[in-house]
Amino acid sequence: MTTELDATAAARLRDADQRYTTSRRQIVGILAEAGRPLTIAEVQAASGGLPQSSAYRNLAVLEQAGVVRRVLATDEFARFELAEDLTEHHHHLVCTRCGSVLDFTMSSALEEALERTARTVRARTGFTVQAHRLDLTGVCADCAD
Amino acid sequence: MTTELDATAAARLRDADQRYTTSRRQIVGILAEAGRPLTIAEVQAASGGLPQSSAYRNLAVLEQAGVVRRVLATDEFARFELAEDLTEHHHHLVCTRCGSVLDFTMSSALEEALERTARTVRARTGFTVQAHRLDLTGVCADCAD
DNA sequence: GCGCATTTTGAGAATGATTCCCATTTAGGT
DNA sequence: ACCTAAATGGGAATCATTCTCAAAATGCGC
């Protein structure tokens, strides 16, 4: 885990009147190393014994502080990743067979085209766009027969 | 509800060895008129007394038959819309305050650029892309102060 | 039209991810 | 070190969703 990530996470928790405790720091480290959204069970497994209630509570705290983002894919499990401004802008490959989620990035030309479109939406609909979310759904390499 | 939609829904249910019952037809009609994804509660309200268990069961049947698609947004409620090949290809505006979901469409140039990108993903990652899903998240007109 | 076999329905129970509760532990400031 | 406020963790509670099963509806052959 990079020092800046650690410092940024600490600062955001402080702004939210929350402490950057050992297990919160550990969760941030686990998500940083994963490079893909993790389920609660995966976070617990990687942590070696973090209680379920602490995992849920601390991920909720980190989410409210803007350190972590909740990702809903297709299965019944919520997944968590670092907030995008702490990593890189990216999108998700969602497997419709097993539910797994992988990260991927697109060309900046396409990203900019999306941004331009997003800016036109407000005038047309009254909806104020804050972010975009692009998932490609399909079958991951593991599930391909 | 258009006659073709009705016929297509009937055909898909038949292919799935399911009947196109009155309440299933009613649900299809409700979703067709809504023009946006509806929660179970909204479907029930529009139907005038459809029991919850029937709403869940019939939406699940319609989903398996490929007539209806389940949409996960940001709140805890699943929403349902007609399958895309029964309507038009579109995307969603997801309000982060109230959870509501609206439809919108993008230029075909941008859609084609997305498709081209999707086709490169398989070579790079081994993931076979079947569809894409683009949501713009933000604040809807109703929730804007 | 009539009964039979099969499917659908609906009310409530069961499930399971997530959230809440609260007594105990931990940590920060003085 | 002390004291106060916050965090922890085990388990209970919540709630959207799914399952169960007896009753009702439907389609089909005669």
Q: What is the structure about, briefly put?
A:
The structure is a homodimer of 145-residue chains. The first copy, chain A, is built from five helices and six strands; from the N terminus they run H-H-E-H-H-E-E-E-E-H-E.
Description:
2 copies of one chain form a homodimer. In chain A, a hairpin with a 5-residue loop joins strand 4 (91-95) and strand 5. Chain A has a 3-stranded antiparallel sheet with strand order 1-3-2. Chain A has a 3-stranded mixed sheet with strand order 5-4-6. Chain A is globular and about 45 Å long. Chain A is built from 5 helices and 6 strands. In chain A, 45% of the residues lie in helices and 21% in strands. With 145 residues, chain A is α+β, with helices and mostly antiparallel strands. Chain A has one domain: Orthogonal Bundle (Arc Repressor Mutant, subunit A), CATH 1.10.10. The longest helix of chain A is centred in the last third of the chain and has 18 residues, at 108-125. The A-B interface holds A 72-74, 93-96, 102, 104, 106-107, 110, 113-114, 117-118, 121, 124-141, 144 and B 72-74, 93-96, 102, 104, 106-107, 110, 113-114, 117-118, 121, 124-141, 144. Chain A binds a DNA duplex (30 and 30 nucleotides) through helix 4.
